[in-house]
Amino acid sequence: MNNKIQLKDAISIGIGGMVGGGIFAILGLAVSLAQGGTPVAFLLAGIVALITSYSYVHLSKTYPNRGGTVKFINQGFGISIFSGGANNLLWVSYIIMLSLYASAFGSYAPNLFQITADKNIDSHIYASLIIIVATAINYYSIKVVGKIESYAVIIKLIILIGFIGLGIYGLNGNANISQLAFSNWESPVKLFAGGMIIFVAYEGFELIANAAPDIIEPEKNIAKAYYYSVIFVILLYIIIAIVTVGSLPFDKIATAEDYVLAEAAKPMLDQIGFSIITVAALISTFSAINASLLGGSRVSYEIAEDDELPHHFLSKLWGQPIGLLIMAIATLVLVNTLDLESISTAGSIGFLFIFGIVNYVGYKLSEEVNGNKIIPLAGMLLCSLALVILIQQQLSSNVIGIVIAALIIAFCFIIEWLHKHYSKPENEISN
Question: How many domains does the chain have?
């Protein structure tokens, strides 16, 4: 019974996965895209996540497996080139998230201590260093990773809730509150597109699936874990967006886009508030990097076990899957070559694609999982619509992000085709 996960712990996994580094990384980007409608953009993204969580609930209860999303996709499509390509994309999306978190860490860290005279150089130095340190910790001890994550969840929630409390109090009489007026909202299509670019801030709820086999009283607690964590985070993000947009003029938000949450604390507590939020961002992004490295390396191992990646990925280096080192190197490359919007766009496209597939599996297997057909179908259509609108909007402003996302998806499926094609004779002989 000691290894069993209580409901509160399962909810913490979901909240910790979502409120990792995403909100610190992309809040400024969200405001630049949605302006006064930023709270609505977070709501729209949250609705897509909540509807998708329905499929995860029923799949997790019927097929509880530490492979989580990987196993659900295989359950729906069998071991095939498509399922392998989709699972490879899930793994690469973990790497993209790592880049996002490292980028956020790099943006906040120079506000406490500058290494050079150029903040941009400092940002890349810090982003690279934190990936190296987190990788070393993962190799040193998985228990340390778990402890860092459990403490970090508590610290960041206390600080964020404190920020909200002070922020709501500070909104009274603040002239910037008018920025939330309907006249400052972007068009509905732009709001939806903005919500989908920041969708990466919600993707972490899928981590509950990996813990499903260990959750006590799974029939009732799995559903509660998903729904409670997603609804809590939706409300948290909406209120943070209201406080931020209502506290700072748009030009200041644009100037401090990469560390806007810290800047939004200044009107409340001056430099002390700025420093407290900066520390919270560093703790959050560091813990998210640690957890994503651990989770992502296990995903690559699971995919290789299902023969959807070469069996070289089953080998270990210093006691950990080789995927851990590959992720660290790939993250270092991405974070030092791409800008924040391109990383966020590629990550959102990746997870919307994956969640669309999981919704389809929930629809396809609705009778087996004792679920409703309409909700997964709505989730699949919403994810598809979100992808189309996101791609259309970004093609006019961020072609690089779309091209990178397309290349990543193509790469994942081509690699899988080559793997299946190359290993086919060997499989036939063994059969």
Answer: 1
Residue 2 forms part of a structural domain: no
Can you tell me whether residue 321 is helix, strand or coil? strand
CATH number of the domain to which 53 belongs: 1.20.1740.10
Asked if residue 37 is part of any domain, the answer here is yes
CA-only gyration radius of the chain, Å: 21
Pairing relation of β-strands 316-317 and 320-321?
antiparallel
* Domain extent at residue 203: 7-421
Report whether 404 contacts 73 (CB < 8 A). no
Please measure the distance between the N-terminal and C-terminal CA atoms of the chain and give it in whole angstroms.
41
**What is the phi/psi pair of residue 317, to 5°?**
-125, 120
What is the reported pLDDT for 281? 84
The Cα 336–Cα 7 span in angstroms is 39
Dump pLDDT digits (tens) for 415-429.
Answer: 888 888 777 544 443
Entry pTM: 0.85
Measured distance CA(43)–CA(28) in Å, rounded: 16
Residue 318: Cβ within 10 Å count: 10
Give domain status of residue 121, yes or no: yes
Rounded CA gap, 53 and 188, in Å? 24
Q: What is the pLDDT of residues 44-64, one digit of tens each?
A: 999 999 999 999 999 999 999
Residue 41 lies in a domain: yes
List beta partners, residue 317: 320
Contact by Cβ (8 Å): 300, 419: no
Q: Tabulate helix, strand, coil % of the chain (nearest 5).
A: 85, 0, 15
Number of H helices, E strands in the chain: 17, 2
